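Morning, I've got a small favour to ask if you have a moment. It would help a lot if you went through both lines with me. Thanks so much in advance, here it is.

***
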Amino acid sequence: MRIIDFLERSSSFIEGGAKFIDIDNELSLSYQEVFNVAQHIAVQLKEKGVKEQDVIATYAPNSVAAYCCIFAISQIGAIWLPLNVRNTLEANLKLLKKSDTRLLFVDSNILASNPELGNQYKDDCCLSFTGKEIAKVNIETLSDKIDQTQEEKLAKGDDPELISLFSTGGTTGESKLAEWGYLTWQSMVSIQMELMPEPDITSTYLVSAPMTHAAGVASFAPILQGSNIIVMEGMIPDVLLSVIEKYKVTHLFLPPTAIYMLLAHEGVKNYDYSSLRYFWYAAAPMSVEKLKEAIDVFGPVMVQSYGQAESPMVCTFLSAEDHADAVATGDFSKIRSCGKVAPQIELTILDDDANILPAGEEGEIAVKGDLLMRCYFNNPDATNEIRVGGWQKTGDVGVFDNDGYLSIVDRKRDMIISGGFNVYPGEIEQLIWGHPSIKDCAVIGIPNEKWGEQVTAVVELKDPEVRLDTQEIIALCKQKLGSVKSPKEILIWDELPRSPVGKVLKKEIRKYFWDKVGRKI
């Protein structure tokens, strides 16, 4: 199965009805028209000599045009490499080199402001486009079917083994490339459709976070289900909220940091969200207090999953019913978790010697199933490092409760060793997030002669003009968590460093403190 098969097998391709709607570029195409455009582009790729399993990258903001490029890449059996526009140019150039990319689809504006791309990828290897243009041809002129001669050039061979390459988060080091084969894609979409069946009203999926990451990946199940696909370039709170109301959006994906931005928007309660069925969040833990606020604002529609580039999106699932039940009963232990193990997945907790641990004991989360990546691209040593006894280790520390709910304690590498005690930042951050003045926070260990590492919180305020009583928060942490786990200091930064997908980069915060002593980063 290829990515384009999700489009071609969709009810909306067969019967019509739903559309791809590009908000920023004022473009609306039926499923059939998107397919036709993709076919025209695929013919161009063939004429340029692109072969099956060549790597083709897309480097552009969210747009329907970008979807057409992705489907075209899939049509000829090439390998799709998405590049995030929020990455630095240097980081994306490294990914292009690491992947041995054969051809690049790049947004015209990005190409104009980054001549290095033009030098590296000449005209025969670089197709530029903007929202309504692909390869300098107006997208609407490509919406008719290709002719028979062109169709013969696209004769389908066997399903390709390798479908796409996805860069890992790079939150603890340089990004690697995870290989997703057809089993990964089929499994992910199948699990997603089982966990989030088609809504009971006309379904509409909104892509606002970068489509090169989770928000885009999560769209292919709705495409197969025949949903309207609404695409917008970025997350401007009032625009996004108005789009939910205007287009009666039924499901969307956002990382927690983006949801915090929506909740902090002064007009968040001025819109109608009654169409929403699934408001999906993942990528990082979410504050329980802000989750309660989100349920109050958006309704009982919040759902959470757990995954990573190496085992994407849906290793666990916490349903809307679980969220609603927690609010109704006042028992928030469930929504501190990331849910139960998803269907078609095996998940366990391992100790440092790869022994399976029982419920209640913390260890490294490990996964089995068709959902897993094939391997790291051209990096067998890194692949072997995370695989043991048939399991794939995640680098995350977790624990199951007796009811089968998995809680993420923290990244293994983020653990702080203070005075000989292991301290995981996650539970401290969860407490600090609940403060009404705090937008986001990160807890790290900084150098300390007495304890080795001093537990320290770095926070970003909702309103920089509001005075924060840091001693009050430290006292609260001591009361709830004890003195060992409580921060010894709380620092206020104007803005926390974040990855292109919105994750707080603790390594950059640690670097600020640890560079001076030349140790842990």
Q: What stands out?
A: The first strand starts at residue 19 and ends at 22. Residues 31-47 form the longest helix (17 residues). Residues 90 and 96 are 10 Å apart (CA to CA).
